Amino acid sequence: MFACRAWICSLILVLVMPFNRAETGPIWRAASSSELEAFLPARAPVDKEHIETELRTATGITDGHGRTVAAVVLITAGYAAEGRYSHYLLTQTTLRVGDTLVLKPGAYVMGWTRVAEGLNVHVYDAQTGAELGAVLAHPYATKVRVEPIHIWPPAENSLIQIGRYYLTYHLSEG
Q1: What are phi and psi of 37, to 5 degrees?
Q2: Where would one find the signal peptide in this protein (predicted)?
Q3: How far, in Å, CA of 45 to CA of 69, rounded?
């Protein structure tokens, strides 16, 4: 009799537990190449130009509910942006990069200069070209695969990797 009651209680717990779980928010994952291709433009609108993107370098994350953060390398040769911008970033959620830079949903371009501590990454509004700020990308302490750009899902690292350097980021609702 006791074994039967224990079995029934266990069955009830298994059936009821999924409905009692508290929602922990959206689960962000790496976006697929088809999702990135649909989200990122082949020619990014930057200032007064439409600069070709290198879609094979596209990277991003999505929550599967209409919000994506993605980046891609810009092919800037021959444009006014050469030497100033290197990456195009689109976000559908507020993104805090580093400790200080807050990016609202929108389109941005990034460029960097090498400094002793790492990379000084400058972020600009893609539409106007106005600089919004700069953050320091730190070198990885261990060997990593060097990538033109990689946005890691928050469950893995909450990092944006540029080459062998990284920036931290945090997602927020606004």
Answers
A1: -65, -35
A2: 1-22
A3: 17
Secondary structure letter of residue 65 according to DSSP: S
Nearest alpha carbon to residue 123 among 98, 146, 140: 98
The amino acid occupying position 5 is R
- Asked if residue 94 lies in contact with residue 102, where contact means CB atoms within 8 angstroms, the answer is yes
Cα–Cα distance for residue pair 148/53, rounded to 1 Å: 12
Is 12 part of a structural domain of the chain?
no
What pTM, to 2 d.p., does this model score? 0.83
Kindly state whether residue 86 falls inside one of the protein's structural domains.
yes
Could you tell me where the DSSP H helices lie in the chain? 2-20, 33-39
- Residue 95, both tokens: 């993104």
Within 13 Å, how many C-alpha atoms sit on residue 17's CB side?
6
What's the pLDDT tens digit per position in 28-82? 999 999 999 999 999 999 988 899 999 999 999 999 888 999 999 999 887 666 6
Total domain count, the chain: 1
- Tell me if 18 is assigned to some domain: no
Residue 16 within a domain: no
> Which domain covers residue 41, as residue numbers?
23-172
CA distance 31 to 63: 9
